[in-house]
């Protein structure tokens, strides 16, 4: 069974989004080099769109539009003197902190375990931590193995709407 891991990374507030992307892409190449045949089948990076920088960061928390619940643990406010607001698709607050979501796919549990073993090797781990320390905010990295995935696609409505909605 395929194993997928989602990784959310926050850039160092002193970096521009462009610099962050350049450094993270170099890091992925380093991971590929150091893990060799244990590298995942795919390593997909989805970068958050960001607008032109403004002079100062907004204060946290921003006022939320009516009906938008507060997140249980908002990201820390940026400490950089230049703020790159996120481009949002709705009325949600533009501050949610992370800069990239990576989706890493392995053929199976064995392939995933092989990769983890390789990156835990002290020499490899040291190089990867040093590389990540250049672009990633120390507390701003989270990874989780994906469980169930549910997807809804836009197809012509051929079924009645359930529950009388």
From TrEMBL:
Q: List the taxonomic lineage.
A: Eukaryota, Fungi, Dikarya, Ascomycota, Pezizomycotina
The protein, known as: EthD domain-containing protein
EthD domain: residues covered: 12-138
Q: Output compositional bias ranges, type Pro residues.
A: 60-79
- Xref: InterPro entries: EthD_dom (IPR009799)
**In which family does this protein belong, per the annotation?**
Belongs to the tpcK family.
Q: Where are its TM segments located?
A: none
Q: Which domain of life is it from?
A: Eukaryota
Q: Which GO terms describe its molecular function?
A: oxidoreductase activity
Question: Which residue stretches belong to region Disordered?
Answer: 52-85
Database matches in Pfam families = EthD
**Organism of this sequence:** Aspergillus mulundensis
Report which residue ranges the record marks as coiled coil. Answer: none
């Amino acid at each position: 069974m395929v194993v997928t891991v989602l990784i959310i990374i926050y850039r160092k507030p002193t970096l521009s989004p462009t610099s962050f992307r350049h450094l993270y892409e170099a890091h992925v190449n380093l991971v590929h080099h150091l893990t060799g045949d244990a590298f995942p089948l795919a390593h997909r990076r989805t970068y958050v769109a960001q607008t032109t920088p403004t002079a100062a960061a907004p204060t946290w928390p921003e006022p939320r539009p009516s009906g938008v619940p507060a997140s249980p643990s908002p990201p820390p406010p940026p400490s950089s003197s230049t703020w790159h607001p996120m481009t949002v698709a709705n009325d949600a607050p533009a501050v949610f902190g992370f800069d990239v979501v990576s989706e890493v796919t392995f053929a199976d549990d064995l392939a995933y375990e092989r990769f983890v073993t390789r990156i835990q090797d002290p020499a490899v781990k040291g190089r990867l931590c040093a590389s990540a320390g250049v672009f990633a905010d120390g507390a701003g990295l989270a990874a989780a193995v994906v469980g169930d995935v549910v997807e809804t696609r836009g197809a012509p409505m051929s079924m009645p709407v359930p529950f009388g909605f």
